[in-house]
Amino acid sequence: MTLNQPRDFGKAVGVGAIVAVLTGAVTAPLFQSGLAPMPQAPSQAFAETLLGPVPEPVGFLFHVLYVTAVTTLILAFTGPRASKRAIAGSSAALWAIAIVVFFPLVGWGLFGAAVTPKIAVAALVPHVLYGVLLWAVSRLVFRASGSTDRAFRRA
Questions:
Q1: Quick one: pLDDT at residue 42?
Q2: Rounded to two decimals, what is the model's pTM?
Q3: Is 95 within 8 Å of 123 (Cβ atoms)?
Q4: Could you say which residues of the chain have pLDDT below 50?
Q5: Cα 71 from Cα 80, distance rounded (Å)
Q6: pLDDT at 151
Q7: What is the rounded CA–CA span in Å between residue 100 and residue 93?
Q8: For residues 16 and 36, what is the distance between their CA atoms, to the nearest angstrom?
Q9: Cβ(15)–Cβ(141) under 8 Å?
């Protein structure tokens, strides 16, 4: 099942933006208070890797754009009301990409080992949060009435 209507694509972008803001609202205080074991928010680290030193709102913008784009792609492939299994698999794949590709890109090493091995484990938390929020928000936004999901259920 995919996003068949332009309206569904717009809703998927909206789901991504909502999930991005909510995950940022939960994780940003953890970084600001120093509770997160990472030296800085990963989106901030990525923004600084690409652009050099930038203010925190730029890192948050990177976070919102990335999460919105990735969420839209996931919903495009899994359908507007993805199963828990599909969302869990997507979240796990994103976590694996983060620790194997993204962390080395920003200088934290494979699995974050150049900073501390705790980073790989700590990175699980926002990815689980992402999965839970993606599932809940997509269920709210893509209610059965009016979405393409209803048409697929009949088929």
A1: 93
A2: 0.85
A3: yes
A4: 1, 147-155
A5: 11
A6: 44
A7: 10
A8: 23
A9: yes
CA distances from 147 to 77, 80, 85, 151 (A): 16, 8, 21, 8
Identify each DSSP E strand in the chain by its residue range: none
pLDDT score, position 108: 95
Say if residues 92 and 139 touch (Cβ distance below 8 Å).
no
Closest CA to 109 of 30, 45, 33, 50: 45
Tokens standing for residue 70: 């990735």
Give the pLDDT of residue 37.
87
The residue extents of the domains of the chain are 6-148
Question: pLDDT for 48-88, tens place per residue?
Answer: 999 999 999 999 999 999 999 999 999 999 988 889 999 99
* b/e sequence 57-74, b meaning 16+ C-beta within 10 Å: ebbbebbbebbbebbbeb
Residue 62 structure tokens: 């990177």
